Amino acid sequence: MSSNIPEGFTARDEGKSYMDHIGPIYHRVLEKSVQLGVRLEKHQLNPIGTTHGGMLMSLMDVTLGATAARVLGHEGVVATVQLSCNMIAAARDGEWIHGEAQVDKTTRTLSFVSGRIMAGDRVLLTATGIFRNPPDPSKKT
Question: How far apart are CA 105 and CA 124, in angstroms?
Protein backbone atom coordinates (compact mmCIF):
# COMPACT_ATOMS: atom_id res chain seq x y z
CA MET A 1 0.00 0.00 0.00
CA SER A 2 2.98 2.30 0.45
CA SER A 3 3.03 3.39 -3.16
CA ASN A 4 2.78 6.86 -4.59
CA ILE A 5 5.16 8.54 -2.13
CA PRO A 6 5.78 12.25 -2.85
CA GLU A 7 9.08 13.20 -4.44
CA GLY A 8 11.98 13.74 -2.06
CA PHE A 9 10.68 11.39 0.63
CA THR A 10 12.64 8.19 1.29
CA ALA A 11 11.94 5.24 3.55
CA ARG A 12 13.13 5.79 7.10
CA ASP A 13 14.89 2.90 8.84
CA GLU A 14 13.48 2.79 12.35
CA GLY A 15 15.64 -0.17 13.40
CA LYS A 16 12.77 -2.34 14.66
CA SER A 17 11.71 0.37 17.13
CA TYR A 18 8.19 1.44 18.10
CA MET A 19 8.05 3.74 15.06
CA ASP A 20 8.74 0.74 12.81
CA HIS A 21 5.49 -0.79 14.09
CA ILE A 22 3.38 2.20 13.10
CA GLY A 23 5.15 2.73 9.75
CA PRO A 24 6.30 2.56 7.12
CA ILE A 25 7.54 6.10 7.75
CA TYR A 26 9.21 8.27 5.12
CA HIS A 27 11.34 11.37 5.60
CA ARG A 28 12.64 14.34 3.67
CA VAL A 29 15.60 16.31 5.03
CA LEU A 30 15.51 20.04 4.39
CA GLU A 31 18.03 22.73 5.33
CA LYS A 32 16.48 23.55 8.72
CA SER A 33 13.93 20.80 9.26
CA VAL A 34 12.98 17.20 8.70
CA GLN A 35 9.55 16.24 7.37
CA LEU A 36 8.09 12.82 8.15
CA GLY A 37 5.31 11.30 6.09
CA VAL A 38 3.07 8.25 5.92
CA ARG A 39 0.75 6.78 3.31
CA LEU A 40 -2.02 5.69 5.69
CA GLU A 41 -2.80 2.00 6.00
CA LYS A 42 -5.43 0.14 8.03
CA HIS A 43 -3.10 -0.52 11.00
CA GLN A 44 -2.71 3.26 11.49
CA LEU A 45 -6.43 3.86 11.84
CA ASN A 46 -8.82 3.73 14.78
CA PRO A 47 -11.99 1.57 14.86
CA ILE A 48 -14.03 4.26 13.05
CA GLY A 49 -11.61 4.29 10.10
CA THR A 50 -9.74 7.54 10.68
CA THR A 51 -6.18 8.23 11.82
CA HIS A 52 -5.46 7.01 15.33
CA GLY A 53 -4.62 9.95 17.60
CA GLY A 54 -1.67 8.14 19.14
CA MET A 55 -0.22 7.51 15.70
CA LEU A 56 -0.51 11.21 14.84
CA MET A 57 1.11 12.25 18.12
CA SER A 58 3.96 9.77 17.62
CA LEU A 59 4.60 11.05 14.10
CA MET A 60 4.56 14.63 15.38
CA ASP A 61 6.91 13.85 18.28
CA VAL A 62 9.52 12.38 15.95
CA THR A 63 9.08 15.18 13.38
CA LEU A 64 9.65 17.83 16.05
CA GLY A 65 12.61 15.98 17.56
CA ALA A 66 14.24 15.27 14.20
CA THR A 67 13.90 18.94 13.29
CA ALA A 68 15.49 20.01 16.58
CA ALA A 69 18.37 17.58 15.99
CA ARG A 70 18.81 18.87 12.42
CA VAL A 71 19.05 22.50 13.54
CA LEU A 72 21.49 21.54 16.32
CA GLY A 73 23.65 19.59 13.85
CA HIS A 74 23.13 16.43 15.89
CA GLU A 75 23.01 13.06 14.12
CA GLY A 76 21.21 11.18 16.91
CA VAL A 77 17.97 11.43 18.83
CA VAL A 78 17.02 14.26 21.16
CA ALA A 79 14.87 13.46 24.20
CA THR A 80 11.33 14.79 24.47
CA VAL A 81 10.77 16.83 27.64
CA GLN A 82 7.25 18.06 26.85
CA LEU A 83 4.79 17.55 24.00
CA SER A 84 1.47 19.35 23.63
CA CYS A 85 -0.85 18.38 20.75
CA ASN A 86 -4.14 19.71 19.42
CA MET A 87 -6.18 17.33 17.28
CA ILE A 88 -8.05 19.25 14.63
CA ALA A 89 -9.11 16.81 11.90
CA ALA A 90 -8.62 13.24 10.74
CA ALA A 91 -7.47 11.45 7.60
CA ARG A 92 -8.52 8.12 6.09
CA ASP A 93 -6.95 4.99 4.65
CA GLY A 94 -4.75 5.70 1.64
CA GLU A 95 -4.21 9.40 2.30
CA TRP A 96 -0.69 10.84 2.44
CA ILE A 97 -0.01 12.76 5.65
CA HIS A 98 3.17 14.54 6.62
CA GLY A 99 4.58 16.41 9.60
CA GLU A 100 6.50 19.65 9.30
CA ALA A 101 8.20 21.64 12.04
CA GLN A 102 10.34 24.63 12.91
CA VAL A 103 12.64 25.40 15.80
CA ASP A 104 11.30 28.49 17.53
CA LYS A 105 14.11 28.90 20.08
CA THR A 106 17.14 27.10 21.46
CA THR A 107 18.95 27.57 24.75
CA ARG A 108 22.08 25.87 26.03
CA THR A 109 20.05 22.83 27.16
CA LEU A 110 16.65 22.96 25.44
CA SER A 111 15.05 23.40 22.02
CA PHE A 112 11.50 24.71 21.60
CA VAL A 113 9.83 23.42 18.45
CA SER A 114 6.39 23.79 16.85
CA GLY A 115 4.77 21.98 13.97
CA ARG A 116 1.74 20.47 12.33
CA ILE A 117 0.60 17.39 10.51
CA MET A 118 -1.08 17.93 7.17
CA ALA A 119 -3.18 15.88 4.76
CA GLY A 120 -3.09 17.89 1.55
CA ASP A 121 -4.09 21.40 2.62
CA ARG A 122 -5.94 20.17 5.75
CA VAL A 123 -4.30 20.63 9.15
CA LEU A 124 -4.82 17.44 11.19
CA LEU A 125 -2.80 18.29 14.29
CA THR A 126 -0.75 21.16 15.69
CA ALA A 127 1.88 20.75 18.38
CA THR A 128 4.61 22.32 20.42
CA GLY A 129 7.43 20.46 22.06
CA ILE A 130 10.46 20.97 24.25
CA PHE A 131 13.50 18.77 23.64
CA ARG A 132 16.67 18.21 25.66
CA ASN A 133 19.70 19.19 23.63
CA PRO A 134 22.46 16.58 23.46
CA PRO A 135 25.49 17.25 25.64
CA ASP A 136 28.29 19.24 24.06
CA PRO A 137 30.94 16.63 23.16
CA SER A 138 33.71 19.18 23.71
CA LYS A 139 32.77 19.51 27.39
CA LYS A 140 33.75 16.74 29.75
CA THR A 141 31.27 15.77 32.45
Answer: 24
Chain Cα centroid distance, residue 101: 8
Distance CA 78, CA 127 (A): 17
Helices (H) and strands (E) in the chain, counts: 2, 7
Class (C level, CATH) for 10-132 = alpha beta
Strands 110-119 and 96-106: antiparallel
The rounded distance, in Å, linking the Cα atoms of 75 and 141 is 20
- Global pTM reads 0.91
Q: What is the pLDDT of residues 11-69, one digit of tens each?
A: 887 777 777 778 889 999 999 999 999 999 998 989 999 999 999 999 999 999 999 99
Cα separation, 129 vs 73, whole angstroms: 18
> Other CB atoms closer than 10 Å to residue 2's CB: what's the count?
13
